[in-house]
Amino acid sequence: GLRSVVLGVGAYLPQKTLTNDELAKLVDTSDEWIVQRTGIKERHIAAEGETTSMLGEKAARAALANAGIAPQDIDLIIVATSTPDWTFPSTATQIQAALGMTQGAAFDLQAVCSGFVFAVATADKFLRSGSHKRALVIGAETFSRIIDWTDRTTCVLFGDGAGAMVLEARPSRGALDERGVLTTHLRSDGRHCNKLHVDGGPSATQTVGHLRMEGKEVFRFAVGQVTDVVKDAFAATGLTAEDLDWFVPHQANRRIIDMSAQKLGIAPEKVVATVHLHGNTSAASVPLALATAVADGRIKPGDLVMLEAVGGGFTWGSALIRW
Ligand code: ACO
């Protein structure tokens, strides 16, 4: 059979940072409150005119360089985003054009903060089917554009950024110690739509809208529910928390990350966390964390890496990868 092997990862963050102290000048909050409840210290904010596709293109170029291949080697682009440049065409086709590509297929996928894990799972199925050879999977967001900057309960949580991964279909014996995506598990439950949503859109309101969230409900769901997809990955492979080298969860909140790891029996030193520096960058958070841990030498070839994410919908998922 075929397996989707990670050739490289990359990331891009807008230059401008926004610290908690700077936020405290905009709304009634404090560095102490934000750090204690979320672990977030600062986040990056896109410049005026800097769009999701621009961030995504830079992350894609970094991932291609890390993989040692050219845009012309790619035949599939999947972009996970909830903040596209335009209602249509897709951000993926914008990035395709920016990379100078005319070959292959490019499309967007929307699963909010779970978007990157959903996109990896989707690309993996394309590659293993044999229909496509090399995929560029991108998570890119400009949540600063949909934040209500007068709402202290949400505006302190989010940031902008992009991350990307290159996957290649390679022949596989199907062994657990062979490189590549070992298993993916996706879930959704649309009954929870109002707990985390944007109150605008082309069909419902003909406006862009702002992010609205019932924080406590989201927190409870994130800690209570998402561990099932990680357990599904263990059950599908026979591997355990002990076998993991790295746990790379969605970076929404340090408390959610720590409580999830604890619930799963994953040792704290195996947890990759970047939320203190990036805030919640939605679909970009997992690839940003991955790119950070690859660049600083933590994640190495042969490591067993568990990706996990949860987001609006709700949606949630896992991807277990032999790096
Ligand atoms: N600064 C200061 N005070 C604040 C702020 C702020 N930024 N935001 C809220 N408060 C106040 C509230 O008004 C409230 O005041 P009150 O007691 O006078 O009414 C008090 O702080 C406590 O508010 P709670 O909402 O009860 O605070 P909680 O402990 O639940 O923490 C938080 C809020 C951090 C949002 C938490 O619920 C959380 O992390 N939820 C998960 C949200 C999340 O991560 N979402 C990301 C998107 S979802 C995802 O990616 C999975």
UniProtKB/TrEMBL annotation:
The keyword Iron does not apply. Gene3D superfamilies: 3.40.47.10. Pathway: Lipid metabolism; fatty acid biosynthesis. CDD domains: KAS_III. PANTHER family: 3-OXOACYL-[ACYL-CARRIER-PROTEIN] SYNTHASE, BETA-KETOACYL-[ACYL-CARRIER-PROTEIN] SYNTHASE III, CHLOROPLASTIC. The active site is at residues 113, 250, 280. The last Arg residue of the ACP-binding site is essential for the weak association between ACP/AcpP and FabH. NCBIfam families: fabH (TIGR00747), PRK09352.1 (NF006829). GO terms for molecular function: beta-ketoacyl-acyl-carrier-protein synthase III activity. It comes from the Bacteria. This is Beta-ketoacyl-[acyl-carrier-protein] synthase III. Residues 107-190 form the Beta-ketoacyl-[acyl-carrier-protein] synthase III N-terminal domain. Pfam families: ACP_syn_III, ACP_syn_III_C. It is found in: Cytoplasm. Keywords: Acyltransferase, Cytoplasm, Fatty acid biosynthesis, Fatty acid metabolism, Lipid biosynthesis, Lipid metabolism, Multifunctional enzyme, Transferase. Residues 251-255 are annotated as: ACP-binding. Residues 235-323 form the Beta-ketoacyl-[acyl-carrier-protein] synthase III C-terminal domain. It catalyses: malonyl-[ACP] + acetyl-CoA + H(+) = 3-oxobutanoyl-[ACP] + CO2 + CoA.
